Amino acid sequence: MSIWESLAVLAAGIGAGTINTIVGSGTLITFPVLLATGLPPVTANVSNTLGLVPGSISGAIGYRKELQGQRARILRLGSVSLVGGLAGAILLLTLPSESFDTIVPVLIGLALVLVVLQPRLAAALRRRQEAAGGDTGHPDGGPALLGGMLLASAYGGYFGAAQGVLYLGLMGLLLREDLQRINAVKNVLAALVNGVAAVVFLFVAEFDWTAVLLIAVGSTIGGQIGAKVGRRLSPTVLRAIIVTVGILAIVQLLIS
Question: TM segments (predicted)?
Fold first, then answer.
């Protein structure tokens, strides 16, 4: 890897760490850059997954204030996310990419719909629960959220682009929580999924360790930048960013 390619990968890591902390889809920045340096797709994918783990941790640390009081929720959703991430990593190593990639744009599109309609859907759900005799909804989303997070995490372990969008869409709809606090949980779960997938890849896949190091350093820096920027955004602006990034992700995936 030349000096200019190394700088490009480092810059991509910073950008990915920043956007991952705010919303997700940082893989859509780093993955094409790694391919442009000449890395094979699978090597680029697994190297990217491992390199982004420190960035997710950095973003979670940056959002530590919003994580207060959410330990039980993180343990519950984290357990499901670990299982899903493990399953996704195994899928990457055993299934042809075409069988999974065709549904990725659909999943991202569904997540965007959930993000946009979340305030109205959540309000309608609360009204229906109250009309049925009180607020009977589950404070942590119940089985619906656990099942959705399991599938989203499996996707994250497989590839991960727009994984954060899926998380935000699901949790925003099914949790009675501020979007910033949901975003903080999303960063922890992303770190868990990337981490468990990376552990699997360590035993069976080939890494480019220069790329891993550059992305790790860049994403760690970006995680702190993203935390400072993201927590200052209003829910409306944050949703607008989520939708914009998600649409760009769909377009890029369809083109590629």
Answer: 7-34, 46-63, 75-96, 102-123, 144-168, 188-216, 237-255
